[in-house]
């Protein structure tokens, strides 16, 4: 894991332990992730992160609203996947960024306990995941 | 770590716990399927629960054409094979792989290990390009499926140990999609020919993490239609 990832992980864990974020933590995350983090905070403030949880297994996936007018929803695993264009081209292909804004929004919302939780059956979750 | 791909005696303490997700990469016809099959046998042997199984996913056509070689000492009639469940998916059917891992949490009993042979061959260039309307369609499909596999296995491990082992054929120095695999797979083993008909299997240990740089290398052969471990050596310097 890179140094940036390690620093980010420690901040996420600290936020998760208190379900709150302070100015210093925001500052560190902004330093690490730049404008993507700003956009992520707006998405979280607008309650744009949904956690879809399969019952009874507890397996889940996140759905994050995009910032464009079209309000697309992107399926996301916070630490390592997003369905958006930026994830594939900027992160996987070019390695230019650590995370896209949707992943950051997902991680921030999860750490703060600020996801809108939607419970579905395990079968419904399987169908959703198969369409990833 | 390389020992897990070879025949081990019961109670052998050298068999360390493996990482949750592993890739075995090697050139064509180097015995990858045989190594995977031995890994399946080892995993099935170590299952504490009588209900635990190992799932081996592969193309039926490939397996029929080139069946794996067993190690000497393995009885083909052993009950252990009852614990290895074969799941056949057609080459080029990456959607089949996705569906399996999308529904992984629906299993009543999670397997102790899932092994996917020739993972890359399930992703057909042309059909992926058509599906996604993108010249990088195959890479897109690989990314989505690996993310799903990773999520399935990490979730499964919250309930009990569950390993995922993939193999991929390497044409040239490194697997075609190594930059994608590395994103989700922390442990990568590579196989290289040694020029004399035998092969060397080693773990790709990346320096700089404070660990020893010594790496164990297994030299093996499949020349006589069984998997034969010639020896394990250590190379590299301590740091």
TrEMBL record, chain A:
BP-aspect Gene Ontology terms: double-strand break repair via homologous recombination
Cellular component terms (Gene Ontology): Shu complex
Domain of life (superkingdom): Eukaryota
Name by which UniProt lists this protein: Suppressor of sni1 2
Organism: Hibiscus trionum (Flower of an hour)
UniProtKB/TrEMBL annotation, chain B:
Record InterPro entries: P-loop_NTPase
Tree of life domain: Eukaryota
Biological process annotations from GO: double-strand break repair via homologous recombination
A GO CC term assigned to this protein in UniProt: Shu complex
GO molecular function terms noted in the UniProt entry: single-stranded DNA binding
Record-given protein name: ATPase AAA-type core domain-containing protein
Organism classification: Eukaryota, Viridiplantae, Streptophyta, Embryophyta, Tracheophyta
